[in-house]
Amino acid sequence: MEEIVGFSRAVRVGSFIAIGGTAPVDASGKTVGVGDVFAQTTHCFKIIKAALVQAGSGLEDIVRTRVILTDIDTWKEAIEARRKYCVDSRPVDTIMAVTSFVNPEWLVEIEVDAVVLE
Questions:
Q1: ∠ Cα 80 44 37 (to 5°)
Q2: Residue 69 belongs to what domain range?
């Protein structure tokens, strides 16, 4: 999607890394875990982890997460999935709901900020 739409998954400026809204999409552009916010959140974090590694970082450097849901009542499932990836870094977190995403199959998007301590 990055090349098609014209954005970067992650941008590193010095020690700061910003990862934009990450949707539950596989390499072929198909939605992963249709109807399952836990599966979608898990997939988003797999994408985020790969982006952090590519930027010279890792999950331990996450300082902020933003979990954006289409149904705020699913926040517990999303946070349960998020916890697996953030247990060591314990970042600050924002959970919010929106009306919809570009693809109506998406139940969640995740944004992450990280700081690499060198």
A1: 50
A2: 2-115
Residues 6+ apart with CB under 8 A from 16: 113, 114, 115, 116
Q: pTM of the full predicted structure?
A: 0.93
Strand 16-22 versus strand 10-13 pairing type: antiparallel
Q: What is the CATH number of the domain that holds 104?
A: 3.30.1330.40
* CA-CA-CA-CA dihedral for 109, 48, 7, 16, to nearest 10: 110
Per-residue tens of pLDDT for the chain, all 118 residues: 556 667 788 999 999 999 999 999 999 999 999 999 999 999 999 999 999 999 999 999 999 999 999 999 999 999 999 999 999 899 999 999 999 999 999 999 999 999 998 7
Q: How many domains does the chain have?
A: 1
CA 101 to CA 16: how far, in whole Å? Answer: 27
The tokens describing 48, both together, are 């985020």
Structure tokens at 61: 């450097």
